[in-house]
Amino acid sequence: MTRSIVSLSFGLVMLALPAQTHAVPPADTIYHGGPILTMHDEAMRAEAVAVADSRIIAVGTLEEVTAYQGDTTQIFDLQGQTLLPGFVDSHGHVVFGGIQALSANLLPPPDGPGKDIASLMQILREWHAANADTAEAVNLILGFGYDQAQLAELRHPTREELDAVSTEMPVLIIHQSGHFGVANSLLLAAIGYDADTPDPAGGIIRRQPDGMPNGVLEETAFFNALGTALAGIDASGMQAIIQAGAGLWASYGYTTGQEGRTDPNTVAGLQAAGKNGLLPIDVAVYPDVLIDREFIAANQSDTYQNRVRVAGAKLTIDGSPQGFTALRDRPYYDPVGDYEQGWAGYAAASRADVFDAVSWAYENDLQIITHANGEGASDMLIAALQTAESTHGGGDRRPVLIHGQFLREDQIDHYQDLGTVLSLFPMHTFYWGDWHRDHTVGPVNAENISPTGWVRQRGMMFGTHHDAPVALPNSMRVLDATVTRRTRSGDILGPTHRVDVITALKAMTIWPAYQHFEEHEKGSIAAGKRADFVVLSADPTAVDPESLDSLRVLVTIKDNEIVYDARNPNAIAGFVSDFPAGANLAPGHCFLHMADRLGLRRESAFAAGYRAVR
After folding, report:
1. CB-based burial of residue 301 (10 Å sphere; 0-12 exposed, 13-18 middle, 19+ buried)?
2. What b-and-e string marks burial along 111-125, b requiring 16 or more CB atoms within 10 Å of the CB?
3. What pLDDT band is residue 335 in, cutting at 50, 70 and 90?
4. Which of 68, 150, 321, 555 could form a disulfide with 326 if both were Cys (CB 3.0 to 4.6 A apart)?
């Protein structure tokens, strides 16, 4: 359940002015009192916005917009803060993000304490001690976000190290990329991985000298293990995970999220969450095209039902660039680990599967979004798109390239010719820019990861994403990285690919709305569009670009109702939806309620909830 704009006011007062006489219905709400960025070049700034029935009815000067004031119109005083369109998620994983919010936080600084293997093991022990009931209920100790590139040892943990956490309960830790994991001996046995188990297609079971798994699982080998590990979570637990994920997105200003790779069962969970009023934002869903095409074709829709819609299909061609599993067209520069000479990564899907999936999507006029990180993966995708277009003809299908970390300029030309929308990942410049420079592609090619400059030279739009839970869905970190391209060490990686703040904001609003075929409904502040807004602590065009990551999301507004309010403890999006009217909705109570639903120990639920909305 959402709270009305009256009960969750943010500087909300009634204007003591007489109502104007006009032919149009009066506004429900008028927003003014601070900068308003519309994302329209012809009128980028406005003084006020009027909304009625969850739709924008007027944008312009304060004098123009107050003509829509009526006796019941509420005034949202921005008090100097900045109003923008609600952010549209170009690529992320809302459900997986909920799992991140409720598991042990293994992220490296600045997002977590996971700086070395000893600290990871201590975090897991502390999480287990605080969540013993939960761990027992689902038979799993779960941690998320370790990154071997940021660990002091520059390697993945092993099953023996996880055995030191527990030999009585399965233990799984998930890499920050979401493409690797490490399992303890008990979980490996439960999965059925041993010395005789062949590597699954599109994945690798890393091994000890005797052939036994060492615990580290890549790509499909990891995804298989993840399904086994999470089998103990029931429908109620899944609803709480979805609720936590959607609330996390709302806390960073996203009014439209994405579940960028899923299956029919998870879609059913999202639909149930929507029906139960647990989703504060819209979620566009892309089931895996290699799992159940009939389901995708039968359920794809252009409209949201209870804030959920199956928007198309997802295809994954390769893996993680920082983990050396992305498929390149040349060897990696200096990979860290036991790699053969000339290692260039590998495909997670066969060429035949890629061509068949893209052809099927074109034949059925469905949007297909494709994870392709390396140049070799893009070569495969481009060839498949060209073949599908030649076979099935042109049309406005808007295929999407997801990530495209390593691209050649000729590939961008091909994508432009094919009408492909590029959803790029410049946040990588902060998190892994130094690693790319030193190990994955080298100092020359690292300058061109996420090449937004090449894209803009061609007049192409693009989306920027966080790929949460690969990183937190931190919109201001996305904005900062797109503008500055500054790495963890302070280096600027590819200064020619830096863009101005307005361009970076378009890549978070109107351009990903276009990507989702929703540009007529979302992504800018214009009459007729949905009243989806975000309020920031300052005008991002008026601050030092080096301080963009310090801006804060203060309020998130979906369909003219506040779903997150950083200044109001009674407005924690996604955690309060089924509280009775008048209940105590302080943050602690919200998280305790979430704990009761998940079976979490309450002290750990508070910590998890705090991470989710901080």
Report:
1. exposed
2. bbebeebebbbebbe
3. very high
4. 321
Are 346 and 201 spatial neighbours (Cβ–Cβ below 8 Å)?
no
Contact 98/248 with Cβ under 8 angstroms? Answer: yes
Pairing mode, strands 254-262 and 282-287 = parallel
Contact 190, 182 (CB under 8 A): no
Tokens 């188990």 found at: 197
Taking alpha carbons only, the member of 473, 567, 518 closest to residue 250 is: 473
d(CA 114, CA 96): 19
Q: For the segment 214-229, what is each residue's pLDDT rounded down to a tens digit?
A: 999 999 999 888 888 8
Token pair of 469, please?
């839970």
pLDDT of residue 50: 98
Name the residue among 561, 585, 574 with its Cα closest to residue 612. 574
| pLDDT at position 27 over 50 | yes
Q: Specify the pTM.
A: 0.84
CA distances from 312 to 75, 289, 353, 401, 452 (A): 39, 9, 17, 13, 25
Mean pLDDT value across residues 78-92: 98
Spatial neighbors of 394 by CB under 8 A, at least 6 apart, are 419
> How far lies 456's CA from each of 213, 379, 413, 461, 507, in Å?
46, 21, 12, 7, 11
Contact 83, 533 (CB under 8 A): yes
